[in-house]
From TrEMBL:
<feature type="domain" description="Radical SAM core">
    <location>
        <begin position="237"/>
        <end position="491"/>
    </location>
</feature>
<keyword id="KW-0949">S-adenosyl-L-methionine</keyword>
<comment type="similarity">
    <text>Belongs to the methylthiotransferase family. MiaB subfamily.</text>
</comment>
<dbReference type="InterPro" id="IPR002792">
    <property type="entry name" value="TRAM_dom"/>
</dbReference>
<dbReference type="InterPro" id="IPR006463">
    <property type="entry name" value="MiaB_methiolase"/>
</dbReference>
<dbReference type="InterPro" id="IPR007197">
    <property type="entry name" value="rSAM"/>
</dbReference>
<dbReference type="GO" id="GO:0051246">
    <property type="term" value="P:regulation of protein metabolic process"/>
</dbReference>
<dbReference type="GO" id="GO:0051539">
    <property type="term" value="F:4 iron, 4 sulfur cluster binding"/>
</dbReference>
<keyword id="KW-0004">4Fe-4S</keyword>
<keyword id="KW-0411">Iron-sulfur</keyword>
<dbReference type="InterPro" id="IPR006638">
    <property type="entry name" value="Elp3/MiaA/NifB-like_rSAM"/>
</dbReference>
<dbReference type="InterPro" id="IPR005839">
    <property type="entry name" value="Methylthiotransferase"/>
</dbReference>
<dbReference type="InterPro" id="IPR013848">
    <property type="entry name" value="Methylthiotransferase_N"/>
</dbReference>
<dbReference type="GO" id="GO:0035597">
    <property type="term" value="F:tRNA-2-methylthio-N(6)-dimethylallyladenosine(37) synthase activity"/>
</dbReference>
<keyword id="KW-0408">Iron</keyword>
<keyword id="KW-0479">Metal-binding</keyword>
<dbReference type="InterPro" id="IPR038135">
    <property type="entry name" value="Methylthiotransferase_N_sf"/>
</dbReference>
């Protein structure tokens, strides 16, 4: 089925609508001039037109009838669209993007911009000259949504001022918040002109055209198939040294606290061929680091080709389970990671965000063996209590998680681990909190993302659990987790002092214009002086250091989360 990205019903152009079958009369007396035979003839004619006319399928978007795919320019056209292609052109109008939330939203921005660019829109980084302002939003927590509401108030004030001097400015909401709060966004003080959910970016040109006519326009339908595989994102990474590549969308895990399955839909994986083509293109452009993206990135399973569709069941980490039936067939994440890493041996490969359940040994062994796959794994725990993990529907116990950590460290001894934790989930006790603190101490993470629980509508927790931990207790527990995490991260990072690390230079440090910053293979941030270095040891020739260069550096000191000072440059890896 074609992607459900436009209004559910359209009027086909090839059948002319029947304007009048017979006159309508207000009394039987006025109808005396129509004989039974004439009436029968008219009815038969109507039945004939119905039988030869469009069927129900012709009125449903998503049914593959009368559609054309032009592979040359990778655009998809629908003959039933009621707006001509000319009306959907941007005519050099300027679009301004603001991106909030996760890396997937960064990639979504690149996809949306690619679609609009083809239609003749121009991109601007100056808000004051924008004709269209698009906010790519996040719904994972209440604070993230409140940020958008505040921003909309500011933009609406600016829009009202623009009405007096310029072409009216249009404001659009894209992404998860558009899907979750569609009704409120359209009705609350009329702040928004356009809404487009995560699976509706192809429809943006039409939505903006409708908005130009003075109407609010929205499309927040979720798709079972949309991966934007034929859309080549326009990458806007800082300095051009790194890029995000989306490999799958949606999530089937249905964790009780999580809104993602309701805003992003079910899992579907992008065909491997299109992923490899994009990575090759980035390599040709000189990109030095690619991050593979997905809501559950390591559950990747490409079934686009018949040769991939076997009967073998997806392997899970030992001791883990899912809320859904085991999936069969498909090209798995380990296969994709293997193929991507072979494209350019000097290009770093990262991936995020994974689920702990999808780390079978073949994935871990590939990471250990392949030099350019970073030895850094994000392993979201969410809690250290088996009781809370069960309430969260995570599919594992504390013991299973710790066994996985041991297995990872056995196969990849130099691995760096990061994690997510939620403080104050429904029913969490002080004992549960202490178990979480002990888990943080036992594992030893380099980086962490810790938040207080924020209940989301539509989720399992919203319908079945009580948000019974007071806000003040949530805050206190979060501060405790952050404190313990920083202590352990300082200990882990201290082990790097004196070691030699390969660093990919990102650019100038925010701390000082005299310093540069970069990241190690383990994704630790490093700060070092901005100065020319020897191209090779024992040579007098020097070269300036630029973003995208690799440096071998010796770590001199470190803090818990941010940076290390470099004592000595060793060499540049060309």
């Amino acid at each position: 089925m074609e992607y459900l990205r436009k209004p559910l019903f359209t009027i086909p152009q090839q059948w002319t609508p029947l304007r009048c079958i017979q006159p309508r009369y207000c009394s039987k007396l006025a109808n005396t001039s129509v004989t039974p035979r004439e009436r029968k003839t008219t009815v038969n004619k109507f039945k004939s037109q119905i039988s030869s006319g469009p069927s129900f399928q012709d009125f449903i978007k998503g049914v593959s009838v009368n559609k054309t795919y032009n592979a040359a320019d990778e655009e998809y056209y629908d003959k039933h669209s009621y707006l001509s292609q000319d009306l959907e052109m941007g005519n050099s109008r300027k679009v301004y993007f603001e991106t909030y939330g996760c890396q997937m939203n960064v990639n979504d921005t690149e996809i949306a911009w690619s679609i609009l660019q083809r239609k003749g829109y121009q991109r601007t980084v100056d808000l004051s000259e924008a004709d269209v302002v698009l906010l790519v939003t996040c719904s994972i927590r209440e604070k993230a949504e409140q940020t958008i509401w505040n921003r909309l108030q500011q933009l609406t004030t600016m829009k009202k001022r623009r009405l007096k001097t310029h072409t009216p400015m249009k404001i659009g909401i894209l992404g998860c918040m558009a899907e979750r709060l569609k009704t409120e966004l359209l009705e609350r003080e009329k702040l928004v002109d356009v809404l487009a959910g995560p699976d509706a970016y192809r429809d943006l040109p039409r939505l903006l055209t409708v908005a130009d006519g003075g109407h609010q326009a929205s499309n927040v339908l979720l798709s079972l198939e949309e991966t934007y595989a034929d859309i080549m994102p326009v990458h806007h990474a800082p300095h051009g040294y790194s890029a995000f590549v989306s490999i799958m969308r949606g999530c089937d895990n249905m964790c009780s606290y999580c809104i993602v399955p309701f805003t992003r839909g079910k899992e579907r994986s992008r065909p491997v061929i299109s992923i490899l083509d994009e990575v090759r293109m980035l390599s040709d452009q000189g990109v030095k680091e690619v991050t593979l993206l997905g809501q559950n990135v390591n559950s990747y399973r490409d079934t686009s080709e018949e040769q991939f569709c076997g009967s073998d069941v997806t392997k899970l980490s030992q001791g883990f389970k899912t809320v859904y039936r085991s999936k069969q067939g498909g090209l798995r994440f380990s296969d994709l990671l293997d193929r991507v890493s072979r494209i350019d041996p000097d290009m770093r490969i990262r991936f995020t965000s994974p689920h702990p359940k999808d780390f079978p040994d073949e994935v871990l062994q590939l990471i250990a063996e392949r030099r350019n796959i970073c030895k850094q794994i994000h392993l979201p725990a969410q809690s250290g209590s088996s009781t809370v993990l069960k309430a969260m529907r995570r599919g594992y116990t504390r013991e299973a998680y710790l066994d996985l950590v041991k297995n990872i460290k056995r196969i990849i001894p130099e691995v760096s681990l990061s994690s997510d934790f939620i403080s104050g989930f429904c029913g969490e006790t002080e004992d549960d909190q202490q178990q979480t603190l002990s888990l943080i101490r036992e594992v030893g993470y380099n980086v962490g993302f810790l938040f207080a629980y924020s209940m989301r509508k539509k989720t399992h927790a919203f319908h079945r659990l009580q948000d019974d931990v007071p806000a003040e207790v949530k805050r206190q527990r979060l501060e405790e987790c952050i404190g313990v995490f920083r202590e352990e991260a300082a200990r882990v990072n201290a082990a790097l002092i004196g070691s030699t690390q390969l660093v990919l230079v990102e650019g100038e440090s925010k701390r000082s214009a005299k310093d540069l910053c970069g990241r190690t293979d383990g994704n630790m941030k490093v700060i070092f002086p901005k100065e020319d270095v020897a191209v090779r040891p024992a040579e007098s020739n020097t070269a300036s250091v630029n973003a995208g260069d690799y440096l071998l550096v010796k770590v001199g000191s470190g803090t818990s989360l941010k940076s290390h000072h470099i004592l000595k440059y060793l060499s540049i890896k060309c």
